[in-house]
Structure prediction request, 74 residues.
Amino acid sequence: MIKLKVMPIGDSACVVLPREVLSRLKVQKGDVICLTETSDGYQITPCEGELGRQVEEVERVMRGSREILRELAK
Prediction:
């Protein structure tokens, strides 16, 4: 088991993945990873190909439409 510390970054939080974890995931700094909720907790996987592009696009839209999304959530 690898223990990770959650650290504050502005109003958010981050977790630093050790070099060994990045190596096993086959990702590098700047790559996109996916956090998927499962029945046992969460799973971290590299986002590759079309899925990675879709995740980036959704994030871009969400950043640009934050107020609209808040109103729709009501």
Remarks:
- The longest strand covers residues 33-38.
- The first helix runs from residue 19 to 25.
- The chain has a mean pLDDT of 85.
- The CA atoms of residues 49 and 55 lie 10 Å apart.
